[in-house]
Amino acid sequence: MLFLQFREPHVPLISYPDASPDVAALLQAWKLPAGVNLALEMGPVETETLLIERCKDADAMILGWAKVTRGVMEACPNLKLVSFTGIGANDYIDFEAAKERGVHVANTPSYGDRTVAEHTIALLFAVSRQVPRFDAATRGGKWVQEPSGLELKGKRIGLVGFGPIAREMARMALGLGLEVVAWTRNAGKYRRNFSTVKFVDLTKLFDMSDIVSLHLSLNTATKGLIDAALLNRLKPGAIVINTARGGLMDYDCLEKLLEEGRLYGAGLDVFPDEPLSGGALKSKLRDMPNVVLTPHIGFNSAAAMERMQRIALDNILGFFAGKPQNIVV
């Protein structure tokens, strides 16, 4: 399905080839700036050929989940900017090809900081009070009140990374009465404004935390950083929460620790392979009542989605106005 906004031949053509129905409705409801030349189509783009067909004349692209390969760029000779609706643009866009062809790439930082932090807290509550277990029992006609849950006040949460999401987490965790420790390579940058957060090295964080929550981007320096050696340092009865990226952590080791009863539980929104299907996640993790799984939805709230789309569009408008922003390539 296709609709066009302000189809003026003298202004750059912006293509949005894979918008969801909700995004389409949102953009249709906005009063777009005069002169915006937007071609929007809904639905997944499952082939390179279809993506090229939708974007072949575009000067700029707003990108959801489609893959912009070298072949796509070569077939779109006018393309100057891809504005990715998210953070990890390198998972969807061939950066090397973009550099070679002079195609800039922008992302949408900070659109979901609060939303992801809130989802992290939601997972923490769900695990600590074993909400899915009791929900399933109650729906099944059983009145089960054991085992007891955990009270979070006074517990120590360790934040791995201290970017915008982790900083939102720190504020909320402190408000809940948790003690907050954190690890970051730039601790000195934050000590003054976060005097109630104790910054420690990574091994000490795993040694001393009752809860560990991951808040790192995935790159060559962080891939597999949370390995078996670190996970085995966790205190008996600890909780692990990951709303960052699955590739940060050794999920096989996590499963083993949970199976052995060494951890209280885990809340996982991200996985090494997504979307999950078949054997993409160990079946034992799927079946553990103290493990709460969500399908990478930490970013997904109505407020965050609106911020994301506005930033993505502003990236393009700023670029063609000579004021580029959020450029990663």
Keywords:
single chain; alpha/beta; 12 helices; six-stranded mixed beta sheet; 329 residues
Description:
With 329 residues, the protein is α/β, with parallel strands linked by helices. The chain contains twelve helices and 13 strands. Helix 5 crosses helix 7. The longest helix is centred in the C-terminal third of the chain and has 19 residues. The radius of gyration is 22 Å and the shape is globular.
Briefly summarize what is shown:
The protein is of the alpha/beta class and about 325 residues long. Helix content is about 35%, strand content about 20%. The strands form 2 sheets. It has a 7-stranded parallel beta sheet, sandwiched between helices. Strands 1-3-2-4-5-6 form a 6-stranded mixed beta sheet, sandwiched between helices.
Mean of residue pLDDT values: 93
What's the number of extended β-strand segments?
Answer: 13
> Spans with pLDDT under 50 lasting ≥5 residues?
1-9
Bin the strand percentage.
15-25%
How does the major sheet shape up?
Answer: 7 strands, parallel
Output the number of helix runs. 12
